């Protein structure tokens, strides 16, 4: 099947280096310390952050830095067929671990010893329906978690942004959608700290020769930088709104 | 006031050679640059004139105000929950003028109830469960509770209910009287300033 036409357009009309539409809102869950809704194309994710607060299980308390916990789940209605086990299965556990490690690398945990930060991420809508191909929710989850942490005022080294890229018809493609992902080609997911230029997450399905892998990874990193600009705009806009309401 | 600029986490605020990192900012050790760690207004605070280090401090004030946390030396208002032979447990409700948003537990030990004759203190004649006391935080204590002290004139029970259920009136630094029944009960009473 042809994923990139001869004049360089993909199935949904995007160019190979074009991302899907990004939309984000902050502060949706008023009871949480921080929350955000992040949409990348048809994938919609909500994240809520509680913390820093007292550790609920005293045996897990760490004396010199904060404990970061993360739970990923998918809403029953997020895919085409109603999901039977939205969390607790292997995939959710793996993604919870991945998000936790990524965010833990950027939170300044040494400033909050003996406390706990909880990050809850739930997928409200997953592009496509098949369980195996929903790896793109990973990027939307990390971006939503970053926004929620920034909204909660938790000190971080930098914001973490994540994006994925693939390789079909000999072309690196940024931000695969469901149809392109189902083609079975390689899918590289990258998470970076953009201003510090450090990679905190790198995962890939399938195989790629190393030189092509470098191009695809570079493309994903540029996607991350574009998301970074958007996230910073959203944060600044939100802060300006808060300033206006406080009369400053 | 200095000009205030909005920043997001990870933005460069300056070099460690020229500025000190305050709240909401941190120094990256590998390149000695100061980055923001919160979203908010960036402010530069001039250094105190008598300090050796004359670098101004840069800090970022965010919007999420977290609740106050008891620090050693802060005056707190607590409600007594349990009175035992040598200690009394209390729930800290306010730190200074602000109420706390999480529960903090404090302990008042027998030797910290008052300043004189500390080994002759009877805890049951000093506090009752339900009393509101003003105390000062001695230290962060152990994992379970802060250590509090009422060993000053202005510290101690500020409000208590008698067994008849009425708010008692203080009559001396060791006694409070119930207005309904006239009964006198013993407490370690705080000397409240009347202006």
From TrEMBL, chain A:
<dbReference type="GO" id="GO:0034475">
    <property type="term" value="P:U4 snRNA 3'-end processing"/>
</dbReference>
<dbReference type="GO" id="GO:0000176">
    <property type="term" value="C:nuclear exosome (RNase complex)"/>
</dbReference>
<keyword id="KW-0963">Cytoplasm</keyword>
<dbReference type="GO" id="GO:0071028">
    <property type="term" value="P:nuclear mRNA surveillance"/>
</dbReference>
<dbReference type="GO" id="GO:0003723">
    <property type="term" value="F:RNA binding"/>
</dbReference>
<dbReference type="GO" id="GO:0016075">
    <property type="term" value="P:rRNA catabolic process"/>
</dbReference>
<dbReference type="InterPro" id="IPR015847">
    <property type="entry name" value="ExoRNase_PH_dom2"/>
</dbReference>
<dbReference type="GO" id="GO:0005730">
    <property type="term" value="C:nucleolus"/>
</dbReference>
<dbReference type="Pfam" id="PF01138">
    <property type="entry name" value="RNase_PH"/>
</dbReference>
<keyword id="KW-0271">Exosome</keyword>
<feature type="domain" description="Exoribonuclease phosphorolytic">
    <location>
        <begin position="18"/>
        <end position="155"/>
    </location>
</feature>
<feature type="domain" description="Exoribonuclease phosphorolytic">
    <location>
        <begin position="158"/>
        <end position="223"/>
    </location>
</feature>
<protein>
    <recommendedName>
        <fullName>Exosome complex component RRP41 homolog</fullName>
    </recommendedName>
</protein>
<comment type="similarity">
    <text>Belongs to the RNase PH family.</text>
</comment>
<dbReference type="InterPro" id="IPR050080">
    <property type="entry name" value="RNase_PH"/>
</dbReference>
<dbReference type="InterPro" id="IPR027408">
    <property type="entry name" value="PNPase/RNase_PH_dom_sf"/>
</dbReference>
<dbReference type="GO" id="GO:0000177">
    <property type="term" value="C:cytoplasmic exosome (RNase complex)"/>
</dbReference>
<dbReference type="InterPro" id="IPR036345">
    <property type="entry name" value="ExoRNase_PH_dom2_sf"/>
</dbReference>
<dbReference type="InterPro" id="IPR001247">
    <property type="entry name" value="ExoRNase_PH_dom1"/>
</dbReference>
<dbReference type="Pfam" id="PF03725">
    <property type="entry name" value="RNase_PH_C"/>
</dbReference>
<dbReference type="InterPro" id="IPR020568">
    <property type="entry name" value="Ribosomal_Su5_D2-typ_SF"/>
</dbReference>
<dbReference type="GO" id="GO:0071051">
    <property type="term" value="P:poly(A)-dependent snoRNA 3'-end processing"/>
</dbReference>
UniProtKB/TrEMBL annotation, chain B:
<dbReference type="InterPro" id="IPR012340">
    <property type="entry name" value="NA-bd_OB-fold"/>
</dbReference>
<feature type="domain" description="Exosome complex component N-terminal">
    <location>
        <begin position="6"/>
        <end position="44"/>
    </location>
</feature>
<dbReference type="GO" id="GO:0005737">
    <property type="term" value="C:cytoplasm"/>
</dbReference>
<protein>
    <recommendedName>
        <fullName>Exosome complex component CSL4</fullName>
    </recommendedName>
</protein>
<dbReference type="GO" id="GO:0005730">
    <property type="term" value="C:nucleolus"/>
</dbReference>
<dbReference type="InterPro" id="IPR019495">
    <property type="entry name" value="EXOSC1_C"/>
</dbReference>
<dbReference type="GO" id="GO:0000176">
    <property type="term" value="C:nuclear exosome (RNase complex)"/>
</dbReference>
<dbReference type="Pfam" id="PF10447">
    <property type="entry name" value="EXOSC1"/>
</dbReference>
<dbReference type="InterPro" id="IPR039771">
    <property type="entry name" value="Csl4"/>
</dbReference>
<keyword id="KW-0271">Exosome</keyword>
<dbReference type="InterPro" id="IPR025721">
    <property type="entry name" value="Exosome_cplx_N_dom"/>
</dbReference>
<dbReference type="GO" id="GO:0006396">
    <property type="term" value="P:RNA processing"/>
</dbReference>
<dbReference type="GO" id="GO:0003723">
    <property type="term" value="F:RNA binding"/>
</dbReference>
<feature type="domain" description="Exosome complex component CSL4 C-terminal">
    <location>
        <begin position="99"/>
        <end position="140"/>
    </location>
</feature>
<dbReference type="Pfam" id="PF14382">
    <property type="entry name" value="ECR1_N"/>
</dbReference>
<keyword id="KW-0963">Cytoplasm</keyword>
């Amino acid at each position: 099947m042809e994923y990139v036409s001869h004049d360089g357009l993909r199935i949904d009309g995007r160019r190979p280096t074009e991302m899907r539409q990004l939309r984000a809102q902050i502060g949706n869950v008023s009871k949480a310390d921080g929350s955000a809704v992040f949409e990348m194309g048809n994938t919609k994710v909500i994240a809520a952050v509680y913390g820093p607060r007292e550790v609920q299980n005293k045996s897990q308390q760490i004396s010199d830095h904060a404990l970061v916990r993360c739970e990923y789940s998918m809403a029953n209605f997020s895919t085409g067929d109603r999901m039977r086990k939205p969390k607790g299965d292997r995939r959710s556990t793996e993604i919870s671990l991945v998000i936790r490690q990524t965010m833990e690398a950027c939170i300044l945990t040494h400033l909050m010893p003996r406390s706990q930060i909880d990050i809850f991420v739930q997928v409200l809508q997953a592009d496509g329906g098949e369980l195996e191909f929903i790896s793109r929710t990973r990027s939307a989850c990390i971006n939503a978690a970053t926004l929620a942490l920034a909204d909660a005022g938790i000190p971080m080294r930098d914001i973490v942004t994540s994006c994925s890229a693939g390789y079909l018809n000999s072309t690196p493609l940024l931000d695969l959608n469901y149809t392109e992902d189902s083609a079975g080609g390689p899918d590289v997911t990258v998470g970076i700290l953009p201003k510090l230029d450090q990679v905190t997450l790198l995962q890939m399905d399938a195989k790629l020769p190393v030189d092509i892998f470098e191009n695809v990874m570079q493309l994903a990193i540029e996607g991350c930088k574009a998301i970074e600009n958007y996230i910073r705009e959203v944060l600044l806009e939100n802060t300006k709104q808060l300033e206006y309401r406080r009369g400053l | 006031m200095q000009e205030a600029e909005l920043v997001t986490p990870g933005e460069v605020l300056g070099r460690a050679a020229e500025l000190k990192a305050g709240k909401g900012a941190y120094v990256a050790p590998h390149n000695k640059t100061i980055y923001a760690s919160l979203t908010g207004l960036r402010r530069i605070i001039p250094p105190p004139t008598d300090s050796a280090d004359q670098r101004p401090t840069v800090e970022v004030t965010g919007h999420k105000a977290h609740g106050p946390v008891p620090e050693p030396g802060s005056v707190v208002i607590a409600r007594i929950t349990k009175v035992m032979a040598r200690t009394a447990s209390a729930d800290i409700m306010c730190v200074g003028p602000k109420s706390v948003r999480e529960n903090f537990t404090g302990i008042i030990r027998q030797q910290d109830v008052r300043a004189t004759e500390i080994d002759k203190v009877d805890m049951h004649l000093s506090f009752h469960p339900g009393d509101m006391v003003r105390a000062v935080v001695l230290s962060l204590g152990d994992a379970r509770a802060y250590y509090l002290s009422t060993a000053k004139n202005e510290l101690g029970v500020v409000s208590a209910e008698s067994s008849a259920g009425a708010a008692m009136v203080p009559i001396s630094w060791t006694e409070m009287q119930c207005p309904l029944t006239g009964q006198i009960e013993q407490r370690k009473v705080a000397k409240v300033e009347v202006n």
